[in-house]
Write a structure and sequence with these properties.
It is built from 7 helices and 7 strands. It is an alpha/beta fold and 174 residues long. The protein has a single domain (7-12, 34-171), classed as 3-Layer(aba) Sandwich (Rossmann fold). The longest helix has 14 residues, at 79-92.
């Protein structure tokens, strides 16, 4: 799919339906308001796009196809999310799908893959240690700190409770 967000595009490896043939965006993916809304992409939000057997693959695909018409921008993720995604796809789907996902994200003009600095890494470690009563992953803490630093208060995820705990608004809304 080739996904265009106004002046940029995301190549997702499939043919995208034209505007008239695309399905409507499920309401739980609707933007929160007017204007540009930064959106961080979590592993659980990206995974169903590449695993067509996922129970939410259709909804995520509809959302991805509608992104050019929605005000979600910039689209952000980080190196840890890409690592998790590729590893999961390789072990649960196949190597070819994992490779296609990596190439899609690497070559994307719309999705910014953020680096994880030493400062961010150590800040995530401190936050992780403070949440001893939660079962949140270290990567979730990295994402939350980086998303807040980038003013991305919304996150594409299927782990809504985890990220709501960390002060982010999950998309899709449940």
């Amino acid at each position: 799919m080739s996904l265009t967000t106004h002046s940029t595009s995301v190549r997702m490896g499939m043919t995208m339906s034209d505007k008239n043939g695309s399905l409507p965006v499920p309401p739980e993916f609707s933007p929160p308001g007017q204007g540009a809304t930064p959106l961080f992409l979590d592993t659980s939000g990206l995974y169903p796009y590449f695993d067509t057997q996922s129970p939410v693959a259709e909804a995520v695909t509809q959302f991805m196809q509608a992104l050019p018409e929605l005000p979600y921008r910039p689209l952000l993720t980080n190196q840890y999310v890409v690592d998790e995604l590729i590893t999961l796809l390789d072990s649960h789907v196949n190597h070819a799908t994992a490779t296609r996902a990596f190439e899609t994200l690497r070559d994307s003009e719309a999705i910014q893959i953020l680096s994880v600095s030493d400062d961010l890494f150590w800040a995530a470690g401190e936050q992780f240690s403070e949440y001893d009563d939660h079962t949140l992953s270290f990567t979730d803490h990295l994402i939350s700190i980086q998303a807040h630093r980038e003013n991305a208060e919304h996150i594409l995820t299927y782990d809504p409770d985890d990220f709501a705990t960390l002060g982010l608004t999950p998309i899709p809304r449940t």
